[in-house]
């Protein structure tokens, strides 16, 4: 049927062993989210174009859908593939609000699509994992701490390099700028967001030219933006800059609570920082903001991020504030797989290959397989009754650790033997009782130190 | 951000409790497939249009992708969303053949898209579960029996109404027609495929007018097509029609093996039949064919199907024969959810709501939740420190069965109590030891007899 291959740039596909790693990552994330009471939802892949463009800035990256043979005025006119999971979630909340209980806690792991230029970590189809809490009219601040902690725990459980959560707070920035008397706070935030790309003196110049700051104000903006600590000592450092404003007080208290709440407890490889230059470009954040970076992969920029939005959705009568954070599954995992930092231990679920002595006795091998499966041991029966050496190599090529032999005994019975093909050890075994070591039961994620 | 809702016909979305049912169905299917050694893969959502149109007939249903702001000659020109999982799988096999071991056993659970008119069980976006085995150059027939048995076992484990697997074999039909001396075997298969929609006498007329049959041959075609039995007695019934041909013999032997193999063992609600009118419209089937029907939902037509294709894919040098079967997850599950035959026991993963006495003691409630989660009990902490009666109703509305109370003792310590809000029973409990009954731990699939 298919007659030629067509690799498409920006649409990565995983081989089975790598896919088992991606599935393990998604299962681990889902497990943590559910332990915290977040319900999974799946939204349709398409949204009306006006919903997609409501978010602004990303319009050029949207893929529109068109029927190959359109009916005139078809109802699917004007739909496109979603480019993130936040826009469809906001629409889902509005569409189904009457059937949801608020605060509504959900997680979502799905692909999204952007027609941008592909590069490492940036794909045209990519999978994200989002976790959000949405309220109706109000959403208490403590949910900011909660949802960020959940993502810290979820990512801390993954077999990936060290991650840094870098937090800031929009109220803190805006309050500081307002207390400073900056004439255009929004323009100033846009300029400060360029600190990653431009030297500090250039940013100071832009603050003067584009945001109407005095040189002294510009310097204080830079002083604020260069505060970066792994504890709550940023509060004192900000206070020392001598600016005061009620919104600044609120932002400081919130950021302090988020940093303290996310730092509490033992962590394997996630660290938490206050980094006061983090702004996040998107205009709808109104409080907590976060970006997540992966050690050794700073070139990918952030592998996740999110924050508080006081108006995730609104239907005119009711406003739905939300707080959430997104993790780029494809963006982080695919480069780790490509670099060999992560690998799957084998490309097949089977822990056992049941050998076939000859085609006439295939049923005996099938019976052994059924017996193993009844005790939840994944296995397969050899495709053909080749010489045992060839069947062992068949297992070897698939990384299947055990081969099972069923042989007729001289006395008319049947004897069973199982061979660990790594050690060569072969022992008698009972198909109704034998179980492989736990580590061999399912494909494992193999990790290697990143060089 | 989002400001209006836009329900889209043909793009169904599930509320969280219903989604938990869909997830349970997919997890159960995946579990069976993996126990049989099938590896999961995920293919990209898009394929080049020429790959999509290679299959013929369905061209008008394809959704093309277009960039909202196209670059000239962009590399994503001419791609569309896949309309099944077979075409992308065939392309995946060709593209990655050098990295796969054959026979290659894979399953795939993903959405597909068709721009057809929506109706019950037919959606523009729908999820399918496919399981296939693909060989390189050759694929022994016993894999036909194997893959069909795997789907029988997988569907037998689902909490859905009774299912009927109806098998036939293309070789049997073609051999019978050839032995009969029909001049145009392909045309005759097309006509016989209309037996669902047209009365037998009309089909007989078409066999004469469109397939060049004599009235006697037409009658024998009808006699063959009306054979339908739940065992292997069809072999005798076909033989009694007095037609002979080597291909007929082969088809009879294969169908007998499939029906016998799939009938073996205890089944909960799956039955197996030979139904000699099943042809399946698609031209690429070359042996075993199957359609799956759900009791009480015959109006959906088949909820699954598949078969053997001797040339799933070919790159000119190598041909990849395959055998597989697909189950329509959306097609079957969404109508069952809509009819209340299936439901989720609750819309949230949480088994416990930890009440909050006052905002100052939220940390004590958080600590209880952490302790429960450490023992894998999904829970959430109340969103606000309302009166306990309100917090209990908060749990009730979400179907959370248990509410946990943390209260200061007169002696300065803390006491813990857990209330089953269904029975009203409240007992002292230790957060480091208490566990809910297993059935309450996770949302369950609730089934109701279909009326």
TrEMBL record, chains A, B:
Entries under Pfam families matching the protein: HGTP_anticodon, tRNA-synt_His
Biased composition (Low complexity): 428-438
Top-level taxonomic group: Bacteria
One Gene Ontology biological process: histidyl-tRNA aminoacylation
A GO term for molecular function: ATP binding
Transmembrane segments: none
Catalytic activity: tRNA(His) + L-histidine + ATP = L-histidyl-tRNA(His) + AMP + diphosphate + H(+)
Compositional bias (Basic and acidic residues): 439-451
UniProt binding sites for L-histidine: 84-86, 114, 128, 132, 280, 284-285
EC number per UniProt: 6.1.1.21
Family matches, as Gene3D superfamilies: Anticodon-binding domain, Bira Bifunctional Protein, Domain 2
Aminoacyl-transfer RNA synthetases class-II family profile domain: residues covered: 103-349
Keywords, ordered alphabetically: Aminoacyl-tRNA synthetase, ATP-binding, Cytoplasm, Ligase, Nucleotide-binding, Protein biosynthesis
GO CC term (a single one): cytoplasm
Region (Disordered): 425-451
Subunit structure, interactors included: Homodimer.
Similarity comment: Belongs to the class-II aminoacyl-tRNA synthetase family.
NCBIfam families from the UniProt entry: hisS (TIGR00442)
Protein name: Histidine--tRNA ligase
Organism listed in the record: Nocardioides lianchengensis
